[in-house]
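Quick look at the format.
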Amino acid sequence: MELELTSGVEATLLEEAARAHPHECCGLLLGRGSRIERVQSAANVHADPASHFELDPASLIAAHRSARAGGPEVIGYYHSHPNGLARPSATDRTEATGEGRVWAIVASGKVTWWRDTAGGFEPLPTRVVPG
């Protein structure tokens, strides 16, 4: 399955990662179906934000409430790796739920896209669309 991204999504993710460095940024990927239309940053509330992330639960709850009220769906999550590795880490693999969510990982000036499956992370092809 190809993931569609609106034109500003990757630029926003790169800006978020640069702003948070040397800590990990994190947030939500919002849209409909297989189309990510925007990102919503969330506070990284992990005790060690330089090498881990934990989404602020209030942001996650608010996004799910908004989706139930007709707003954009929570397609997945994003975070950065200040260590420069744009792939799922051992911690990411341990924390993954296998529920099919999309994960964007930002590192070294690029964004990689993954699906969290029961068998582990699978890379996702992407296509940029206007929006």
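Next, a different chain entirely:
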Amino acid sequence: MAKRMVIMLLAVAGLLTVIGLVKFQQIQAAISQSSSFEPPPEAVTTVRARQEAWEEEIGSIGTVSAVHGVIVSADMPGIVNAITFESGHRVQSGEVLVKLDTRQEEAQLVAAEAQRDLDVLNLERARGLREQGITSQADFDQASATAKQSQARVGEIQATIRRKVIRAPFTGVLGIRQVNLGQFLNAGDPVVPLQSLDPIQVDFGLPQEEIPSVRTNRGVRVELEGDSGGELTGKITALDSLVDSATRNIHVQATLPNPEGRLQPGMFVKVRVILPSQQSVIALPATAVRYAPYGNSVFIVEDLTDPKKKGKTYRGVRQQFVKLGSEQGDLIAVLSGVKAGEEVVTSGVFKLRNGAAVLVNNEVQPASSSSPKPEDS
């Protein structure tokens, strides 16, 4: 019995040993296969870096403001008798907006005109009597002064009536009305905002070190985020006479034509001041740049040597850190890190690493233009 038990244990041990050897060989084969596995090359598109002369510019963020912008308000107290405008409409300079009740002033005007006419007649009589020597010069002077006072009183009432007719002080676009029929207005109460939108102004700040480069009549380009209508161009019309002691920036004001009303007061816009000098840069599509906190980089395609295959060469990428400049549409200026003529990856950079093998396929290239015109989606 014991002999049979020993034989069985030896058989089991032998079987386990055989199974272990088989599994060990399988694991060794898998390790060997995985160590020799090479991932397939990544499909990318490329472009040849080219040297271009770009206008030097200074970028900033600006706020749109109206050349003329006011809250039209009541000049005299009174009850609103008529509203002759619609919110949001365009009005011309001098156009009537609101009429206040003037019945009391009109009645006063009738009495004042009657008194004026009587005083004028008395003056004519006093003049005739004075010429005949019947009255004294003092009586004639008194009649003359009374006639002038009556005329002034008529003019005062007429001016009050005119001031109760509220007119647009300049041509522009109205906002939302803030009065209603029958409402009593005090002097200074708001009626409606009025903004002159063409031309329009953009206010922005520039660092103090840029002051020597900025002059009036220097061109600016303004871009509105999310607007597909392209850039607006204008000129610098004013520079502040002092530098902000808190930010060390100088306040600059530019004026732009705005016939379509694309810019509205209060909007934030991107501003680029165009300098007269030009800068030589490498222009690349913005899609070619991998942005990272530790530095921006691009991938350059070239023949690389594989040390695992005894110096065999393959088409791969080299990650190159770059210094970026300004942007123009879909293009971005590379100031250093890339040479003209080098082949740079333009799409698929997010899946690349330094030394990765690539397969270049340029049948379909991403769009890149200095003045793109995206279609409405």
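The two ends are 88 Å apart (CA to CA).

See the schema section for token definitions.
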